[in-house]
Amino acid sequence: MSARDEILSALRAQALPAAPLPEISGEWIAYPDLSEQFARALERAAGSLVRSTRARLGEVLAALPVVQQAGRCCSLVPELPGNQQPPAEPHGFRDLDVLIAPAQLGIAESGAVWLGESAASVRAGLFLTQHLVLVLARQELVPHLHGAYERLGAELARTGYGCFLCGPSKTADIEQALVVGAHGPRSLAVVLWE
C-alpha cells in the first residue's frame, strides 16, 4: 500500500458522527412589500430591477439598453428568444453580450436570486456573458435566506448545481476601490413580472 493510500484510508476511518441540522424556525424579519425590499437590496448590490407584467415581458426585455445594444444575445427562456441560439459548448458563451435566463427564487432581504441547474443548465453562461438579465416571477420572492432554503428543500439534494447571485461581479481587492464587472457579468438586471 502506498503512503497516499494509507493516508486516505486513515482519513476514511475517521468518520465523524452525524450532527443534526439546526431548526429553521424563529421570528425572522418581515417586510410589508417584498418587491420593494428586493429592489432596494438589489440596487445596493449594483444590480437593477425592471418591473413588468407577464404579457409585456418580451417588450420590456427588448427595451432594455443592454439588449438593444447587444450584438449577440441569447435566451434560456423558451418564450423569449434572443438573436442567437444558446451555444452548444460552455466556451461559446465567452463572446456573448447578453444572456437572458430564468431565476427560480428571489430573496428580498439581500436582493439575491437562486439559479438552479434546471433553470440554467449551462452554468458557464451565467459567468462568461457580458450582461446578465434574469427573469423572475414576483410570487417567487421570499423574505430571507431561511425562507429560501425552506422553499428549495429537497431540490438542493437532487440537483448537481445551483447558486445565489446578488448583483454583477464585484471586487475591492486593489486599493480598496470597488470595481463592478471585474471577473464576470458587468451588469445584472432582474425583470420582475406579475
List keywords for this structure.
194 residues, alpha/beta, four-stranded mixed sheet, 7 helices, 11 strands
Show the helix and strand layout:
Blueprint: H1 3-13, H2 34-44, E1 48-52, H3 57-63, H4 65-68, E2 73-75, E3 98-102, E4 105-107, E5 112-116, H5 124-128, E6 131-137, E7 141-142, H6 145-152, H7 155-158, E8 162-165, E9 170-171, E10 179-180, E11 187-193
Could you characterize what this model shows?
By secondary structure, this protein is α/β, with parallel strands linked by helices. The protein is 26% helix and 23% strand. The protein has seven helices and eleven strands. The strands form three sheets. The chain has a five-stranded parallel β-sheet with strand order 1-11-6-3-2, with helices on both faces. It has a four-stranded mixed β-sheet with strand order 7-4-5-8. A two-stranded antiparallel ribbon has the order 9-10. A hairpin with a 7-residue loop joins strand 9 (170-171) and strand 10 (179-180).
Global Rg = 20 Å
**Head-to-tail CA distance between termini:** 62 Å
Q: Describe the global form.
A: globular
- List how many beta strands DSSP finds: 11
Structural class: alpha/beta
Concise account of the structure shown:
This protein is of the alpha/beta class and 194 residues long. It has helices spanning 3-13, 34-44, 57-63, 65-68, 124-128, 145-152, 155-158, and strands spanning 48-52, 73-75, 98-102, 105-107, 112-116, 131-137, 141-142, 162-165, 170-171, 179-180, 187-193.
